[in-house]
Design brief:
By secondary structure, the protein is α/β, with parallel strands linked by helices. The protein is built from 19 helices and 15 strands. It has an 8-stranded parallel β-sheet. The protein has a 3-stranded antiparallel β-sheet with strand order 1-7-8. Helix 7 runs parallel beside helix 9. The protein starts with 9 loop residues before the first strand and ends in a 10-residue tail after the last helix.
Length: 532
């Protein structure tokens, strides 16, 4: 569908696909155009400010709770909006890309919430983005289903209880190059939010819930204020009462950990709480402080949530949320049941321990990547909640976290192992290949890996090289070996492109902010859907 657009209107460059016209209506495109006109310039200013703050951190200026937010933190009177319908009990949330099989499995998994993820779990091909919107439209209308390999038809029953849908749009740093205004690509955040909100907000309200979102990669209160203003305008344009939208913010960047209260404050009438985005948080730590030798992270497998800096971050998240009447949702369990009794028992034991700790710490719910972990995680929270839908009354007054606690990384110490290096290279290369071919969530080594784990893998390698924990020559040797193994296992793999992405993502002098921005611009092609 290619249009001839008047100046200032949205032009569609993406190739037409089955039912795309149901999403890309003239009215929906006009709605996107209104959002773009209001916020495109401000988005760029937010990104510029992010870079400025990153440069300040790199120059040695210490991170701390900002003085500009002191009054907000000191004011004990303000609260976020009460939990919205469908978001009162959130003891288990499941995440996955908005594709049809995942949607049916997630909605019927027994989880309270399905976070439909356009960000880390979706490779942003044109067909994936518009197909994801169609999946959500059909899910809201309960006309979605799938047929199993055995021939069993699985459809959503009319009166069955389904998981509440929360959509995770792509972050402010990303664009959607198939939708442009005056040859300028639209913000991917506004596209993902805007298309879902336009088509599904009123449908969700009529069904007794509402348009709910999960916001990624925020770094400070300005990011949150921008989203809040987007919500206000979107509701006004469609005649929906202000405060109907609810959004949970993933605290998955180190700068955001220092502004949790300010982020809740900016979104307060639209806030549904905070989630601990543990994997991206580690990636952010490397991006923010990886230039310093005293912040070198050990192998990812050795960094558990009991590490002092991660305990400080999660304890502060619970205290902050409950102080303001907001839900606190724990980190994701990425394990995959594999029909291997010994392996499954070990994986389940680790998940049970992790979820039990989160429940005891005061979290109101948790986050999983596979339906096989829903019951186990729910049981861990049932034992602590004891019939209650949440534990907002646990204000965690015992928690007193200062800046040094959030930065207590050296205590986790440890040099990278040869196995850790190889694992990171293997994960990065295999994930890059899957992502280029249109798959954003991949099963690797018994875990669901997405963009966040690939980001950690390639960033750790950059950090280890920078601080001479590994040599560039050893990395190149392992890359060559793992690229050969990938090619042998999958002859269709795009090995040259994968290695080029790895080179720019891990072996440059300065660490690129995200691999996805470069890979999207250079390598995502029509074979995965859409016009490059």
């Amino acid at each position: 569908m290619t249009t001839t657009a008047l100046r200032g209107t949205v032009e569609v460059l993406g190739a037409p696909g089955d039912r795309h016209d149901e999403i890309l209506t003239a009215e929906a495109l006009e709605f996107l155009g209104r959002l773009d006109a209001a916020f495109a310039g401000r988005r760029l200013r937010v990104l510029t400010e992010r870079r400025r703050r990153a440069e300040r951190a790199a120059s040695g200026i210490p991170l701390d709770f900002p003085l500009t937010g002191r009054a907000i933190r000191a004011d004990a009177t303000w609260r976020v909006a009460p939990p919205a319908p469908g978001l009162v009990d959130r003891r288990v949330e499941i995440t996955g890309p908005p594709e049809r099989r995942t949607a049916v499995n997630a909605l019927t998994s027994g989880a309270q919430v399905w976070m439909a993820d356009f960000e880390d779990a979706t490779s942003p091909t044109w067909n994936n983005i518009i197909g994801g919107q169609l999946t959500l439209l059909d899910a809201v209308a309960r006309r979605i289903g799938l047929t199993t390999p055995e021939g069993t038809e699985n459809r959503l029953r009319e009166n069955a209880r389904l998981a509440t849908i929360a959509v995770r749009p792509r972050g402010w740093h990303l664009v959607e190059k198939h939708l442009v205004v005056d040859e300028r690509p639209l913000s991917a955040s506004l596209v993902d939010f805007g298309l879902y909100f336009f088509h599904c907000a009123q449908r969700q309200i009529d069904a007794g819930h509402g348009p709910y979102f999960s916001l990624p990669k925020l770094e400070n209160r300005e990011d949150a204020r921008l989203w809040n203003d987007v919500f206000l305008l979107a509701q006004d344009l469609l005649g929906i009462p202000r405060g109907t939208i609810r959004a949970t913010v993933l605290i998955e960047t180190v700068p955001a950990a220092f502004e949790m209260e300010e982020i809740l404050y900016e979104l307060r009438e639209h806030s549904a709480g905070l989630t601990a985005g543990r994997w991206d948080y580690l990636f952010s730590l490397i991006k923010t402080l990886g230039h310093r030798s005293d912040f070198v992270l050990a192998d990812r497998s050795q960094i558990t949530m009991t590490a002092p800096f991660l305990r400080a971050y999660t304890d502060l998240l619970v205290r902050t949320c409950h102080k303001r009447g907001a839900h606190a949702i724990g980190g994701m369990a990425a394990q995959i049941p594999r029909d291997d009794t010994a392996a499954d028992e070990a994986a389940f034991a680790a998940v049970r321990l992790d979820k039990g700790r989160e429940a005891e710490d005061g979290f109101d719910g948790t986050w999983v990547a596979h339906p096989g972990l829903v019951e186990l995680s729910r049981t861990a929270f049932d034992e602590v909640l004891d019939g209650r839908p949440h534990q907002l009354d646990r204000t965690r007054g015992d928690v007193d976290v200062v800046a040094a606690d959030l930065l207590a990384v050296p205590r986790s110490g440890g040099a990278p192992s040869a196995e850790g290096l190889r694992t990171n290279v293997s994960i990065a290369l295999r994930y890059f290949d899957a992502w280029l071919r249109g798959t954003g969530a991949v099963a690797l080594n018994g875990l669901v890996e997405d963009a966040s784990t690939a980001e950690i893998a390639r960033a750790q390698i950059w950090q280890w090289i920078r601080h001479q924990a590994v040599s560039r020559e050893d990395v190149r040797r392992v890359v060559a070996e793992e690229a050969g193994a990938l090619s042998a296992e999958y002859p269709w793999a795009r090995v040259d492109d994968v290695c080029a992405i790895f080179e720019r993502a891990s072996l440059t002098r300065d660490l690129p902010a995200f691999f996805t921005t470069d890979a999207y611009a250079r390598h995502l092609v029509t074979t995965a859907g859409g016009r490059s």
